[in-house]
Amino acid sequence: MRIAILAGGSRGDYQPVIALAQELVRRGHEVGVTATTDFAPWVREHGLTVEEVHVDAMQIYRDGDVSTVMASTGVAGQVGALRAQAAAMAPELARALIDLWPRYDAIISTALTVGWVAQLAAHDPRPQAVLLFVPALPSRHGDASLFADREGASLHNLRAGLRGVLPGLAMSAPVTSALAAQGVPRRRSLRALRHTLTVPAVIAHTPQLIAPRRVSGRQIVLTGYPFLDSPAGTTLEPELEAFLGDGPPPVYAGFGSQSLRVTRAALGHAIEGALEAGHRVVALRGTGLPEGYDERVLFIDGAPHDLLLPRTAAIVHHGGAGTTAQALRSGVPQVVVPFALDQPFFARRAHEIGVAAAPVPVGATSVEALRLAVLDATQRHERAAEVGALVQQERGVEETCDRLLDGLQRERRSLGHTAPGGPPSRRDTSLTRYLHADEARVGLKVLYAGKDDDSGIEDPDLVRAGHILLHRHPGVIQLFYGPGVNHCIVEFVGLEDQFISTMVGFDHHRDGHYPGLLVPSEEEWVQACAAGWWNQ
After folding, report:
1. CATH T-level fold of 2-225+395-415
2. What's the topology of domain 238-393?
3. Less Cβ around it within 10 Å: N or C end of the chain?
C-alpha cells in the first residue's frame, strides 16, 4: 500500500512516527510522512519520503502566546490554545493535504491531525487508522485517560474528560475551514464525529503505565511504545562520555526547549536540588538557564536517550509521552515536573506505579521540593528496574504496525477496495432493521450498551438475559459510547465478511419506539448464528 502518515507537533511527536514509517517501508509499503519545514530535513535523514508543510511550527509556537497559555491553564484550556497555532498553519496544511490525498491508498492520522481527515474522506474515501501515543478519550478511570486527574474511578474524571474533548474537536475548525475554502465540502458534524470515532485506533504506549480498559466504549489496545533507537555504532559525545566515566551516575535533568520563565526556574531548581541531594547533574540546554555551575554539572545540547538514561541515577523530566516511555525502559527512577497536556497524566501514573516520586508541577518547584523528590526517587530503583525489564520485552514498533495494517485492511474491505487474496466486498446494511419496543420482549437478540459501561445506559427493556452484550461480541470491530448521550456507534462483521457500520440509538419516543435501535431480523439471526458470527 501507499500509506500517508499525517504527523505533526514537536520532535518528540515525530520520533515514534519515524520508527513506524521505517518498519512499514521494510515490510514493502510506500510511506510518506507529513512534516513541517522545521522537521522535514530530520525526517528525510531517516530515508523517508516527506510531504512538506511549508511552515515553521515550533517558531509559531514560540512567537505566539500559545506557550504562555499552556503554562497557565488546565488541559481543556491548553487544548483550546492549540487552535491558535492551527489557525496560523491552516492554509498551508489544507494545501498539503489536498496535494497528497490522491497519491496515497491509505491514511494514518495522529492525535493532532485526526480531525481533518473526515472531511477529505467524505469527498474521496480512503482507508484510515488513528495512531495515538496518549489515551485521548474521556473515562472515569484515572489510569486510562489523559484527561483524568484523580486516581481510581470517579465521575470527576469523566467530567474532566468531557471538558477536554470539546476544545480538542474545535481545534480542527481552522483547517476544515481552509479545506472548504479550497473546494473540499464540510461534513455534517455528526457524520464527521462518527467517522472519527469508528475508524480503527491504536494507542502506541506501554500497558505498564496505561491500563488496558474499556474507555468510552472502546477497548484500549496498547501495543508498546515505538522507540526510535540509535543506529548501531552510535556513541555519546566525548565530553559527555568522559563526565559519565569520571564519577558515580549523575542525575539527568531536561525539560525540552521550553524557554519560559517557569521552565528556566524549574531546571535551576532541579539542578540545585540534585546537587544538595549529593548527586552530579547532566542538564539539557534549551530553557535559557545560565550555566554558571561548577564541575559537578555538565550542560549538553542533547543525547540519545537510549544511550544516556540507563547510565543515570535518576531522571528529572517534563513527562512527555516519549520521554516517559524512554525513562521507563531505562529502569531508572524518575522525578516528573509536568508542564501541560498529557504530562500531568504521565507524571501521576509514573508515581502510582511506583517508579517516580510524587509529581512536582512546573510553577510549583523549589530547590527543597526537588531535593526531596530526588531523594525519594533514588529509593525506587528496584521497582524502576522491574518495570524497565517489562517494557524492554515489548515489541512496540512491530506490534503497532501489525495493528495499523490490520485496521487499514479492514477499512479497505469495508470501503470496497480490493484486498490481497480476495475480491472486493461492499458495505451492506441488509442485516439490520428498525425495532419497535414491543419486539424487544419477544426474544430477539438486541444490540445495546451494557450497564457497566461509561455510557450509564440502564434500560430495563434492553438489559435482560439473552441479549448480546455488544462489548463482548466477537464480531465487533469498533464501538463508541458517547458519555452522557443515549447512543453508541457500532461497526461489526456480518455474514460473508461484510461490514456493517451504523448508529444504534436509545432515545425513547412517546409511542415507545426506539427509532435508532437496529437489529437483524429473526431469520437473519438464525443464519448468522449458524454461520458462527454471533453468540447466542
Report:
1. Rossmann fold (3.40.50)
2. Rossmann fold (3.40.50)
3. C
